[in-house]
Design brief:
- By secondary structure, the protein is mainly α.
- Helix content is 73%, strand content 5%.
- The chain is built from six helices and two strands; from the N terminus they run αααββααα.
- A two-stranded antiparallel sheet has the order 1-2.
- β1 and β2 form a beta hairpin.
- The chain is elongated.
Length: 125
């Protein structure tokens, strides 16, 4: 899946957890994109089995979509945490940079970062 698709899935996951119901307008506002862009992306994600999208209605993640969106979200939050806690990057920059990195970082690197953070937390307790 491409970066854009992952961003849309992550947005659906976050909006769904915050509001319960996800609509095209919510995603457009969250990602700062047009509603037609959201509609095109939702058609693709629906065709690939990641979401259910009722015409002019709510959007929800399928099980496949939840798994993929959760993976992207975990990469994002782990990277933000690493950038903030280990490298002391500002909140704004860490969130922006994590979004850029999360799509291209290897599984090996993510595992190492997560392990480092786990060890870092244990040594600080």
């Amino acid at each position: 899946m491409n970066k854009s698709g992952e961003d849309y899935l992550e947005a659906v996951l976050n909006i769904e957890s915050e509001k319960g119901i996800v609509r095209t307008t919510d995603i457009a506002e969250r990602l700062n994109v047009s509603k037609p862009s959201v509609n095109r992306a939702m058609k693709v994600l629906n065709a690939e089995g990641y979401i259910n999208h009722e015409t002019y209605g709510k959007i929800s993640l399928t099980e496949k979509g939840k798994i993929h969106a959760s993976m992207v979200y975990k990469r994002h939050t782990t990277l933000v945490r690493f950038l903030r806690e280990v490298l002391n990057v500002s909140e704004e920059a860490s969130s922006r940079d994590a979004c850029l990195i999360e799509h291209d970082v290897s599984s090996e690197t993510m595992e190492k970062i997560a392990s480092y953070l786990e060890g870092h937390m244990k040594s600080n307790n």
